[in-house]
Amino acid sequence: MVVLVFAMLLVSPGLAACGAETPDRYTMALIYQPETRTLSGEMTAVFYNRTDTVWETVKFQLWPNAFREGAKYLPVSEAYAPAVYYKGASFGEISVTSVDGGEARIAGEDENILEVVPSAPVYPDESVTFTMTFTVIVPEIEHRLGIGEKTVNLAHFYPVLCAWGGDGFCEHVYTCCGDPFVNGTADYDVTFTLPAEYHVAHTGAGTRSEDGELATYHVIAEDVRDFAMVCSEQFSVLSAEAEGIPVTYCYLDDADPARTLVAATQSLSYYAETFGTYEYPSYTVVETGFPYGGMEYPMLSLIADDLPSQDIPLVVAHETAHQWWYAMIGSDQYHEAWQDEGLAEFSAALFMESYPEYGRTYAELLSESENAYRAYYSVSSQLTGGETAMRRALVDFTGDYAYRNLVYDKGFILFDRLRQTMGETRFFAAVKEYARAHKGTIASPEMLISCFASRAPQAEGIFNAFLDGLCVI
Length: 473
Ligand SMILES: [Zn+2]
What we know:
By secondary structure, the chain is an alpha+beta fold. The protein has helices at about 80-85, 255-275, 310-320, 335-355, 360-385, 400-420, 425-435, 445-455, 460-465; strands at about 15, 25-35, 40-50, 60, 95-100, 100-105, 115-120, 125-135, 145, 150-155, 160, 185-195, 200, 205-210, 215-225, 230, 235-240, 245-250, 285-290, 295, 300-305, 330, 440-445. Helix content is about 25%, strand content about 30%. The strands form five sheets. Strands 1, 2, 3, 5, 8, 12, 14 and 15 form an eight-stranded mixed sheet that branches. Strands 17-18-19-21-20 form a five-stranded mixed sheet, covered by helices on one side. A four-stranded antiparallel sheet has the order 6-7-4-11, with no helix packed on it. Helix 4 (about 335-355) packs across helix 6 (about 400-420). The protein binds zinc ion (ZN).
């Protein structure tokens, strides 16, 4: 995600043996009915127990319940709520109407977890299969899951397997700052039916067919962390290629869509050359109603439809960088948000350094982040004694302002200081090694740090000083 707003808000079963390489698999048949705001689905999912713990219970995140009336953890902060709830209050939720393969119940701190006890425990190296039916009421909100004024964003709508945290499934609540979604990779086979007036931008590669008043998309996405779609009756579409990969831009009112598409293709090519190959078969950027500038999904980037024109290439560059730092190389976005956001922010500035025609320079972006961080530190040190550590769970940030400055600005400055200290050759060798060695994983901070520390002994100290909040900027 990118946060462009600098608002001064201190808010406060069947069991079977598995091959280790066989991916988890979600197969979904989905129908969207705008008149009732419902997305109904049947999902069959196969998961492999790659842990050394017997699974007595299998857990899923139920993200749509964050939008329900009475939710404890709201999906947007008070500052953003009036803009995103463009019709006033609106609610959504998920009802899981049947589960085959186990006994299910709603659980979690905020009705955010589906617990399923499989019909037999799932031992290490075995698989388990569940078939579920569910209905999502889609709220009227311009957010990751919501019916907006011009588009329908359908992300985090299905029960998704919780990430494994070493000794159990991780349970995350929704947070109004940051991206609380931590998923392993899986293959998706999705059939999606909706009124034929809609065009759909989505994760994966697919086909569209029409039957009377309905259109059906059949989409395959392999080795991805999530599956998201954006639907609209108003999209225009432009296409190009980068590195032999088809790149599509679905847009609404962009005054210069060709320029936005070029920013997508150029940044995709630039990162492929700088960090390592783009591994997916296609890439789509979609303009949509969204409060925070942009949002990343595998093979799909959302950019907000209210961005000032001059900001669009930078947002596209940031979101495209997430195809590396999030999609291909995963990290724990809930506890270590700086890891992918800092790299994405730094990567976008690097891209601008090589493409001055977009009107932004690396030096200027760095200076903006340094100034923003110093201003934040000055205010924060007076009010809270200085909240400077970057490593913290999303729920432990005091609000959007602290999150923006500690994760994005300080994250960018961290990678800049490493670059300056290590020099170009060693620094970029470390970044490339991180991308190559941890593709497809959820890489820990220690895995990232070791790629740098093995090339420059002082790198570990720099990371620690930033992450623990001890350095002066
Ligand atoms: Zn981001």
